[in-house]
Specification:
This protein is an alpha/beta fold and 214 residues long. It has nine helices and eight strands.
């Protein structure tokens, strides 16, 4: 089923799931399918352990799966891989290159997201450079990145008042603590453990998704 988007940035909303590091592609697809059934709107493929061949195979399989659910696929760090699998875009961290460099590889119709941690100026600079969305965090203690910089609700409110592109909140987010982030202006909540470590992945995703309907 072909994906339908008016403008790419409109895809950044709701539950934004980041894949866990997994060497088992079949298991990764099984878990991701459950998350997509639960209402994931955006899936970021992130695997810090896989070699290039496995990353390509997993990203291709996830591209097919996300298309079936009409969800956006973002590739972490690697614009070339995003192009290779026809992903919807790439997400850049502090050391992952420039927005302009990624844009030259991806073209103007793909999404570029930028991690801004707890620094509003990074978000301003990213938007000025042409980023389609920005991400702030960590808002809560993260098991994936326990030493991450701490972001506040005040930062999120200030960013929402100033920045027009979608804002993603990340870091230790659960169905229990995410409501305040949505109220403060987050367009999407990025989750890993809250979804993929759950006994019932589909239900856990649905519970996070409910925060956007209140």
């Amino acid at each position: 089923m072909a994906q339908k988007m008016a403008h790419p940035s409109h895809a950044i909303k709701g539950v934004y799931a980041l894949t866990p590091d997994s060497m088992d592609t079949e298991e990764l697809l099984l878990r991701t399918r459950q998350a997509l059934k639960g209402g994931v709107q955006v899936l970021q493929y992130r695997n810090k352990l896989a070699d290039p061949a496995l990353r390509l195979a997993q990203a291709q399989a996830l591209r097919t799966l996300t298309q079936a659910f009409e969800a956006a696929l973002i590739v972490n760090d690697d614009a070339q891989l995003a192009v290779a699998v026809s992903a919807d875009g790439v997400h850049l961290g502090e050391k992952d290159g420039s927005v302009s460099g990624a844009r030259a590889i991806l073209g103007r119709n793909k999404l570029i997201g930028v991690s801004c941690y707890n620094q509003l100026q990074l978000a301003r600079d990213a938007v000025a450079a042409g980023a389609d969305y920005v991400a702030f965090g960590a808002f809560f203690t993260s098991t994936v990145k326990p030493d991450a910089a701490v972001a506040t609700l005040d930062l999120l409110r200030t960013a929402r008042a100033e920045i027009s592109v979608p804002i993603v909140a990340i870091g230790g987010i659960t169905a229990e603590n995410g409501a305040a982030l949505v109220q403060a202006g987050a367009d999407a909540l990025a989750v890993i453990s809250a979804v993929f470590d759950a006994a019932d992945i589909q239900l856990a995703t649905q519970n996070v998704n409910k925060l956007f309907r209140k």
